[in-house]
Amino acid sequence: MKILTEHIDVPGIETIDVFCKHGGYQAVEKAIKKMSPDEVTEEVKKSGLRGRGGAGFPVGMKWSFLAKPEGIPRYLVCNADESEPGTFKDHYLMWKSPHTLIEGMIVSSFALGANTSYIYVRGELMYVIHILEKAIQEAYDKGYLGKNILGSGYDLDLYVQAGGGAYICGEETALLESLEGKRGNPRIKPPFPAVKGVWQCPTVVNNVESIAATSWIINHGGDAYAAIGIGRSTGTKLISASGHIRKPGVYEIPLGITVEDFIYSDEWCGGIRDGHKLKAVVAGGSSVPILSAEMILNTVNGEKRLMTYESLSDGGFVTGTMLGSGGFIVMDETTCIVHNTLTFARFYHHESCGQCSPCREGTGWMDKVIYRIEHGKGRKEDIDLLVDVAKKIEGNTICPLGDAAAWPVAAAIRHFRDEFEWHIEHPELAIQPGAVYMRPGASWA
Amino acid sequence: MSFPAETLELVQKIIKRYPKGKHKSAILPILHLAQAEWKWCSTEVMDYVAYLLSIEPVEVYEVTSFYTMFHLEPVGEHVIEYCRTGPCCLMGGVEVYDHLKKRLGIQTGETTADGKFTIKEVECLAACGWGPVFQIREKFYMQLTAEKVDQIIDELSK
Ligand SMILES: Cc1cc2nc3c(=O)[nH]c(=O)nc-3n(C[C@H](O)[C@H](O)[C@H](O)COP(=O)(O)O)c2cc1C
Ligand code: SF4
Ligand code: FES
Questions:
Q1: Structure pTM?
Q2: pLDDT at residue number A439
Q3: Which atom of ligand 2 lies closest to the CA of A174?
Q4: Same domain, A347 and A315
Q5: Pocket of ligand 3 (CB under 6 A)
Q6: Which ipTM value was assigned to this complex?
């Protein structure tokens, strides 16, 4: 079942003519000519679509929180900052099929009553920005954007905004600060963007994939979307698959397939690269807890784990993880968990905006302490020190970047403590290039 | 210091994307244009951007110092921005990066003596499935190997 990527490999799909030949812009026609904004929102609510940027908050519900004071403009801002390590789905979608996002932007803006909307794209993707701008111009030329769209009296201008290279600008209030031309420092909430967003006006921020999905929902109905998936994990999800698999890439899966199928089936990742065995997975982007092979394939109750929000988080952080943004990073037995954790800790240290002391100082500590462990200078007490620092960051910061920095470190120690200990106890071995700790009884495939 | 006429026109168009009085929002897009024009964000360049937007120079400085894409020091002709984050490392990113540094004879943040190449380490470029990855200006170079790196450097050295 493909909703967003059904036609992604059709030659010329980036042009509006080919896109329209494959059913493109029908949702705009339907929504604007035949539906009221509230009816559009109602369908999205019925679909059960949850935010694809990481937090999984229901999209329709978020829309219904938007304040609508008389005479004050409202804005839709698409979050295309995509900087979470392991995640590259939005990049892929916008690059291959820009109109899929633009169509969704028009439908969603109409539902929210926004007359100006922005797509905030990380600045590194400047070539994608050019692709989007070209596609937007085509949409203006066809009358899907601009004044009086399809004779309805509804006006919409759509612009692309380039970021400047800062992961924190993916956090929605930092993104709005950045859109205002400032440093990307997250705001204290409340007020929430739905009440005071960009330029203090009511604003909805949604991920690329969330917005892109709305067109299909309008074409086929919220119920049809909700029929895909399991329970509260409705519809399809783009999974960015990277690491030691045969076929890295972006896959659109119906939520609810098993993790095992996703990793091993030829339809998706095609299994672990030749001659190797699965060791660990980070299932939802660098922020979510890493799990060992056994834990990612099965829940603690011995059931097969599914690619859903609920199943991946089964067991809480003790034995579970999160679907997050769908950045699925696969590691085989040649992976040094300490080194991988170091790159994540360094990432969060680099990306902390510095407003809150626990995050600013804590990410620096974690980076430095893991660095010394990795480089054979670790001390016995370092592991507990890391756990302690992670605990002190968690829940004590303005935005969730603090948690996102603490979780991967805490989880790596929770599930791979022996690797950290081995580094500390055998520094002479650990500093050898490519050194990896083998658990007793484990073997190289 | 001034943009060419057509860039100045573009600047005026960009400013119109935002509500009246909110033209400060144009700062990042204009800085990108400025860096494309002058390679790096010298104080002079930043002051010019402030002048274009009628804002205080410090409002530009605090932005350029926050976002990693802006070069605050002179750079070489080709700036190679190399992804150092986990998923790329899993694909052999560290080894390929070591090769790049050896090939150019410079370390992270340095520029070759002939002024041709600068290398910088950056974090995840949203291309993890196609790693290891680096970026030169707008172009992504993916699934890098030592041989591919050599080819790219040979090509750009011509
Ligand atoms: C540090 C941090 C980085 C984030 N990065 C992104 C991002 O790159 N893209 C994204 O869509 N959401 C990101 N988010 C989540 C956004 O804050 C926000 O929840 C999301 O854009 C809402 O859209 P959705 O409900 O459609 O997912 C990030 C959150 C945090 C705390
Ligand atoms: S948690 Fe970190 S990134 Fe978020 S506001 Fe505080 S210092 Fe900035
Ligand atoms: S880790 Fe290198 S592009 Fe994501």
A1: 0.97
A2: 82
A3: 5
A4: no
A5: A 85; B 83, 85, 87-88, 124-125, 127-128, 131, 133
A6: 0.98
From chain A residues 300-329, the ones with a CB under 8 A of any chain B CB are: 327, 329
A342 with A274, same domain: the answer is no
- Give the C-alpha separation, A393 to A397, whole Å: 7
- Does the residue A2 lie in any domain? no
Per residue in A76-88, pLDDT (tens digit) is 999 999 999 999 9
Cβ-nearest to B90 among A244, A249, A286: A244
Residue pLDDT, tens place only, A106-137:
999 999 999 999 999 999 999 999 999 999 99
Contact A183 B139 (CB under 8 A): no
Which chain B residues in 103-142 lie under 8 Å from chain A, judged by CB atoms?
Answer: 122-131, 135, 137-140
* A309 close to A323: Cβ distance less than 8 angstroms: yes
Is A373 a domain residue?
yes
Task: Name residues whose C-beta falls within 8 Å of residue A443's C-beta, 6 or more positions apart in sequence.
Answer: none
- What digits encode the pLDDT tens for the residues A165-214? 999 999 999 999 999 999 999 999 999 999 999 999 999 999 999 999 99
B66 has a chain A CB within 8 A of its CB: yes
**A235 and A322 together in one domain:** yes
Largest CA distance in chain B: 52
Q: Are residues A264 and A302 in the same domain?
A: yes
Comparing C-alpha atoms, which of A407, A342, A421, A401 is closest to residue A173? A401
The nearest alpha carbon in chain A to B31 belongs to A164
SS3 content of chain B, % helix, strand, coil (to 5): 50, 10, 40
User: What is the tally of structural domains in chain A?
Assistant: 3
Q: Which chain A positions have a beta carbon within 8 Å of B131's beta carbon?
A: 242
Q: Find the domain containing A388 and state its range.
A: 338-430
CA of B78 relative to ligand 1 center, distance in Å: 32
Boundary-marking domain end, from A275, A297, A332: A332
